[in-house]
């Protein structure tokens, strides 16, 4: 069966510090991978998606970047965090039109 | 107009009530419709999945799609406290880039 791992579960970082969130998928190959951010009252905002190694599409201009160094690994990064980067970050894998989510990372920038 | 509109609630009902959750959408290309359930501090999980118009039933849950009105619903019968969660609708266009468009989610509390 397919499994999606995401860590860490919670993170508190100071403004201006770097960020690296990792997501890995098991049980499938060449998955379409997605990073979403969920802010209170704003629903799920698609940040990045990737259809293969080294292929990244950005949905919104922002302070974040994404990379896909391996087939089943998707990384969300920032060089300098802003207060507005706080939120609940979710990695997802899509099979056809069904999304399977990781457990999320709650990021608080202070 | 946003592609998908969903009333964020919150919605509070007594145990055993019938719950109706709804979303409207503007993109007539949407063909696949889903409902996700998200417990607090967890990732969303797929609850129901329907293609095109019609009804689909799974236990206490019924998903309904009315493409002519661009309106989808999720009904929960005999609601239980364990149904307390945020419910998100999601939809996708056929032959599209497989990107799902989500509603903002409706927070439901079922009181014992």
Task: Give an overview in words.
The complex is a heterodimer of chains A (110) and B (112). With 110 residues, chain A is an all-beta fold. Helix content of chain A is 0%, strand content 63%. In chain A, the strands form 2 sheets. In chain A, strands 2, 4, 5, 6, 9, 10 and 11 form a 7-stranded mixed β-sheet that branches. In chain A, strands 1-3-8-7 form a 4-stranded antiparallel β-sheet, with no helix packed on it. In chain A, a hairpin with a 2-residue loop joins strand 7 (65-70) and strand 8. Chain A is globular, with a radius of gyration of 13 Å. Chain A starts with a strand and ends with a strand. Chain B has strands at residues 4-6, 11-14, 19-25, 30-38, 45-51, 54-58, 61-66, 71-76, 85-93, 101-102, 106-111. By secondary structure, chain B is mainly beta. The A-B interface holds A 6, 32, 34, 41-44, 46, 49, 90, 92, 94, 96-104, 106 and B 6, 8, 32, 34, 36, 41-46, 49, 88, 90, 92, 98-100, 102-105.
Mean pLDDT of chain A: 90
Number of helices of chain B: 0
Structural class of chain A: mainly beta
Radius of gyration of chain A: 13 Å
Q: What helical percentage do the residues of chain A reach?
A: under 10%
Please state roughly what percent of the residues of chain A sit in beta strands, choosing from under 5%, 5-15%, 15-25%, 25-35%, 35-45% or over 45%.
over 45%
Quick summary:
The complex is a heterodimer of chains A (110) and B (112). Chain A has 110 residues and is mainly beta. In chain A, 0% of the residues lie in helices and 63% in strands.
